[in-house]
């Protein structure tokens, strides 16, 4: 039987590590929650995406108004 020698090179996948950390944060939040599930708002809060979602909605609203102005004008 041949076993590969242990590698001395450390490789870190920063994206994977960030995803693992976010999953851990969700697990901790879920274990502390009163109900069976986390609300979408609570998930956004844990993942710190509420501000990003608001900014995206504002941007989409601006785009929609611009399209309406072009169609009307």
TrEMBL record:
Q: Organism's domain of life?
A: Bacteria
**Protein name as annotated:** Uncharacterized protein
Give the source species. Streptomyces katsurahamanus
Its ancestry begins with:
Bacteria, Bacillati, Actinomycetota, Actinomycetes, Kitasatosporales
